[in-house]
Amino acid sequence: MPWFAGVPREEIEWGPTIDPEKCVSCGICMNCGKEVFDWVDGRSVVARYHDCVTGCTSCANLCQGHAISFPPLDDLRKFYRKNRIWDKVKAQLIADGVIPE
């Protein structure tokens, strides 16, 4: 998958944080396709921060208590710009035949 363009996922600061004061234990975040969360003592906890898909905010968008937050998207964009990730992703997509040159 070209999205990280050779940058180790652990170097990309992107993943959810849960405010336990706001969590209403709705469980919607447990529907995460990457299984980032675990259910512990009746609440969700972030168990696999770096398994979160970079840029995804679905859990925060659907959280009933508005308890889930992410780092600023501008920080992620700066990281992408600094590491030329957009250029590398596009080159890989062209090489893979996903988009034309």
Key traits:
101 residues; alpha+beta; Alpha-Beta Plaits; two-stranded antiparallel ribbon; 3 helices; 26% helix
**What can be said about the biggest beta sheet?**
2 strands, antiparallel
CATH topology of the domain at 8-71: Alpha-Beta Plaits
Named at the architecture level, the CATH assignment of the domain at 8-71 is 2-Layer Sandwich
Q: How many angstroms separate the termini?
A: 18 Å
DSSP strand content: 5-15%
Order of helices and strands: EEEHEHH
Report Rg. 16 Å
CATH class identity of the domain at 8-71:
Alpha Beta
Mean pLDDT: 92
- Number of helices, counting only DSSP H or I runs of 4 residues or more: 3
Overall outline: elongated
Number of strands: 4
Uncertain regions: pLDDT < 50 for 5+ in a row? none
Structural category = alpha+beta
Physical arrangement of strands within the biggest beta sheet: 1-4
Helical percentage:
25-40%
Task: Please provide a brief summary of the model.
With 101 residues, this protein is α+β, with helices and mostly antiparallel strands. It contains three helices and four strands.
What would you note in describing this structure?
The protein has helices at residues 58-62, 73-82, 85-95, and strands at residues 17-18, 37-40, 43-46, 68-69. It has 101 residues and is α+β, with helices and mostly antiparallel strands. The protein is elongated. 26% of the residues lie in helices and 12% in strands. The chain has a domain at 8-71: Alpha-Beta Plaits, CATH 3.30.70. The strands form two sheets. The protein has a two-stranded antiparallel ribbon. A two-stranded antiparallel ribbon has the order 2-3. The mean pLDDT is 92. The protein is built from three helices and four strands. β2 and β3 form a beta hairpin.
